[in-house]
Design goal:
Length: about 325
């Protein structure tokens, strides 16, 4: 008989621990991985998703289950001591005996276990949790009714406002997605770089004017062709008199496909797109795409040219260095 009591008490304590662990696991579970697994048809995910969608019902189910099994364990231990001690001493012995056991095996250990392994054990525990929600439905309904009554009495609104999606929360979701294996490290970097585009200026992505191969407006076809062969570039800013006086852009193919005899670089001039160096990378990309130009001249706010930027330079702020374009 004593052995049966011990087994039952152990079973009740572990059952209480299950509910304590599930509660912590429900907070630690990766929502991204849950949604991904549900879309893939993972059985445990299909059970968990609706349970987690109704947070109040889930918490009430857990509270009912945990308290029920703690009560049953306490009642059995009290009954075990009742035949040996006075009623007052029986309660004291029950408390002294069970308190550390419940604290350790029905609180601390299961909560820590589920916190660390939530993405594994929550799916294993899903079926029993769903069964508990059905069995405890009357008690849960009563408990939710009490909560509703006090909320009404204290005028506490249960209306849930739409969550505000901040940059910090997006970064957290990207990190969670990477840790869950849904996003690769490279995809995580891409997402973060895209989020940071508004804070990265064109001036950071540009090539300084001193390092840019430029063409003087009076140059002839042979000088331009030599420069193109030496640099492997197809587009060059055209300047007049001094390098900082950019008047347009030359496309080498205009020269190659046209008749260049007796003509100068200015005869092949195309209008340049001017972008302020303080503009964001996103704004720079928009301006170049709208103008359908692969290269723009970067200027100060006063309009003085300070560099050149291409779509490739701006895209590299998102995807990293590109060997070929």
């Amino acid at each position: 008989m004593l052995l049966l009591y011990v087994i039952l008490v152990a079973l009740f304590v572990l059952s209480a621990g299950y509910y304590a662990g599930v509660e912590t696991g429900s907070y630690s579970l990766s929502r991204l991985k849950l949604r991904y697994r549900m879309e893939e048809g993972f059985p445990g995910a299909k059970i968990l998703f609706p349970l987690l969608a109704d947070r109040q019902r889930l918490i009430c189910t857990i509270l009912v289950g945990h308290n029920l099994f703690v009560y049953l364990a306490t009642a059995l231990v009290t009954r075990l001591y009742r035949g040996h001690y006075s009623p007052h001493f029986t309660e004291l012995m029950s408390t002294v005996t069970l308190a550390p056991i419940i604290f350790l095996f029905a609180e601390v250990l299961p909560k820590n276990f589920f916190r660390v392994r939530a993405d594994t054990w929550m799916y294993i525990a899903a079926s029993l949790l769903s069964f508990s929600a059905k069995v405890f439905r009357p008690a849960v309904a009563l408990l939710r009714g009490v909560v509703w009554f006090w909320n009404r009495l204290l005028r506490i609104s249960q209306r849930q406002e739409a969550p505000v999606l901040t940059r910090e929360s997006l970064r957290f979701y990207f990190l969670e997605g990477r840790d869950a294996g849904i996003l690769t490290s490279y995809q995580d970097i891409l997402a973060r770089n895209i989020m940071a585009l508004g804070g990265v200026s064109v001036g950071r992505a540009m090539v300084p004017l001193a390092q840019v191969a430029t063409v003087e407006a009076s140059w002839g076809p042979e000088q331009i062709k030599d420069l193109a062969r030496n640099t492997n570039f197809s587009r060059f800013p055209i300047y007049e008199n001094i390098q900082r006086n950019i008047i347009g852009v030359l496309n080498i193919y205009d020269l190659l496909w046209g008749n260049g005899e007796g003509r100068t670089a200015q005869d092949f001039l195309r209008p340049a797109i001017f972008i302020t160096q303080d503009d964001s990378v996103a704004a720079g990309l928009y301006q170049l795409r709208r103008a359908r130009q692969p290269m723009g001249i970067v200027t100060t706010k006063a309009g003085r040219p300070v560099g050149v930027v291409t779509i490739k330079d701006l895209v590299e702020e998102i995807v990293g260095e590109l060997e070929a374009w």
